[in-house]
Design brief:
With 360 residues, the protein is α/β, with parallel strands linked by helices. Helices cover 56% and strands 11% of the residues. The longest helix has 41 residues.
């Protein structure tokens, strides 16, 4: 049963409900814009307005502690769920730039040390919208209303939900053996959360090292993988040959994604970027000879940028004894298995046998 003061608070809530609804819609949209600008990917961005029945229950228990409706800080609530622990602090940084933070009522539950606290290690900010950032004359209360933002990782969020289901809904006291097992599992999940973040940091360090090695030209030290190959393509290693080939017919070069060549280079047993770079240096003239034979007597005026690396591979395979079968495997890798590839392999062998590079 609510007293008169609580009834007045509830009436204030009803009158402000349109403002709460507007805030719950517009604040997440604004946050998403800032996350996108910062390149910050989050797993979920949830929002809600506390229902009248939920507020009534809260006021029935402790309505006397609130002077007016503006003292209640969780009527509008947001939850930002991140993939990594490190991103919680990045989200917090965005909030600090956008909003006024009520530090006295904000809570960093990540500092808790209880063994069963994993799912509740959220960072909670109580925020308000500064007039300098946004105001609306139709909703003057918008800048006065405080709202809550909870930030946690995917694993913390999942654990909080599972622990709530198993530990609280039944209304029965949980035996200690189950509580111990839940605590052990919470500890494992916390380690997994930490490990995900550590692996991401190490991968970021590895990518920077690869980029520095590629930029320095020390390619023999760089293992061939997806990250290193993307960095290699960023320095456009096949451009010089491609421009030379295009000049045969004064053709336009159509840029295409060359990442499909990675599995082929790996199938050719190239281990480092240095192996690819050595092929470019040693077989560019042969690749150019193949191109002259292929398009010299045609009127082709648009060429795919894949012509250069494909001709390099063709020259490498033929010069190293791969023959028809090696060329077919190359075409199968690039284009998918097809009977056409067999005929094309025969054609390439035939047209290349009298080229100068085959007789050197």
């Amino acid at each position: 049963m609510m007293d008169l003061h609580s009834e007045e608070l509830l009436e204030q809530y009803r009158s402000l409900l349109p403002v709460y609804t507007k805030m719950a819609e517009e604040i997440p949209a604004k946050l998403k814009e800032y996350f996108d600008e910062a390149g910050l990917v989050v797993a979920a961005l949830e929002h809600r307005v506390k229902t009248e029945s939920s507020l009534a229950g809260k006021l029935a228990l402790k309505g006397g502690k609130y002077k007016d409706i503006f003292d209640i800080t969780d009527l509008v609530g947001l939850r930002v769920i991140t993939f990594y622990i490190d991103d919680v602090d990045k989200v917090a940084s965005v909030l600090e730039r956008l909003f006024v933070i009520d530090w006295a009522n904000s809570v960093d539950k990540r500092k808790a040390h209880e063994t069963d606290s994993f799912g509740y290690l959220s960072l909670h900010y109580i925020c308000s919208i500064p007039e300098t950032a946004y105001s609306d004359p139709d909703y003057p209360e918008l800048n006065k209303i405080r709202f809550e933002v909870q930030m946690r990782t995917v694993l913390q969020h999942a654990w909080a939900n599972m622990n709530h289901d198993t530990g609280y809904k039944s209304g029965v006291e949980i035996p200690k053996v189950y509580l111990r097992n839940l605590s052990r599992l919470a500890g494992m999940l916390e380690l997994v959360d930490d490990e995900f973040s550590r692996i991401r940091r190490e991968l970021a360090d590895y990518r920077r090292q690869v980029q520095n090695l590629v930029a320095s030209g020390d390619l023999s030290e760089v293992q061939l993988d997806g990250d290193s190959f993307r960095s290699y393509l960023s320095i456009r290693p096949f451009d010089r040959l491609m421009r030379r080939i295009a000049s045969i017919n004064q053709a336009e070069i159509q840029e295409v994604d060359l990442s499909k060549f990675l599995p082929l280079f790996q199938a050719m047993r190239f281990k480092t970027l240095g192996d690819i770079d050595a092929m470019v240096k040693e077989y560019s003239e042969a690749a150019y000879q193949i191109a002259c034979f292929q398009i010299g007597l045609t009127d082709l005026d648009i060429l795919s940028s894949s012509v250069a690396p494909q001709n390099l591979c063709t020259a490498f395979i033929l010069k190293n004894g791969g023959g028809r079968m090696g060329l077919k495997l190359m075409l199968d890798e690039l284009n998918g298995p097809s009977e056409v590839n067999e005929a094309m392999a025969d054609y390439l062998v035939e047209q290349s046998k009298d080229l100068p590079f085959m007789n050197q």
